[in-house]
Amino acid sequence: MVYEGIAGSVKAGEDAIAHMSDWSLEMTREIKEGSFFGGDGYKEKKGGVKDWSASCSGACDFVTDTTQKGLLDAFENGTTIACGFYLDDDTYFKGNGIIESLKIDNSAEDGPNIEISVAGTKGITSTIPTQSDL
């Protein structure tokens, strides 16, 4: 299945964050290495702990009910928020995170934009339909 970017969305809790035009999600795994006597001369590597982070950006709007004001408050208070990153209604990733950075950029051409970066706390889950679900 090919996903169209226009169908994507970002949610804080169950509420979509209005005006978001893009998002990205990065999942990483720490790699542990070791060298051992009597080995074959190569380092041995094993998978370690996993981590995730995400960001989204779009038009800035603190006035209307867009949840952006709530995210600003969560940043100020260091509150953990529930995050959802959707490719469509059936394919998404969910986890809890802390807002690591919140950037507001005001341009005479585009108007104010906001970029929000989230550091994951604990795991992130994926919901991906199988072929039989489609």
Instruction: Report strand %.
Output: over 45%
Number of helical elements: 1
Oligomer: single chain
Biggest beta sheet summary: 7 strands, antiparallel
Describe the overall structure.
This protein is mainly β and about 130 residues long. The protein has one helix and seven strands, in the order ββββαβββ. It has a seven-stranded antiparallel β-sheet. β1 (about 10) and β2 (about 15) form a beta hairpin.
Keywords:
134 residues; mainly beta; 1 helix; 60% strand
Summed up:
With 134 residues, the chain is mainly beta. Helix content is 7%, strand content 60%.
Please describe the topology of this protein.
Blueprint: E1 9-12, E2 15-16, E3 20-34, E4 44-59, H1 68-77, E5 80-88, E6 91-107, E7 111-127
Antiparallel strand pairs: 1-2, 1-5, 3-4, 4-7, 5-6, 6-7
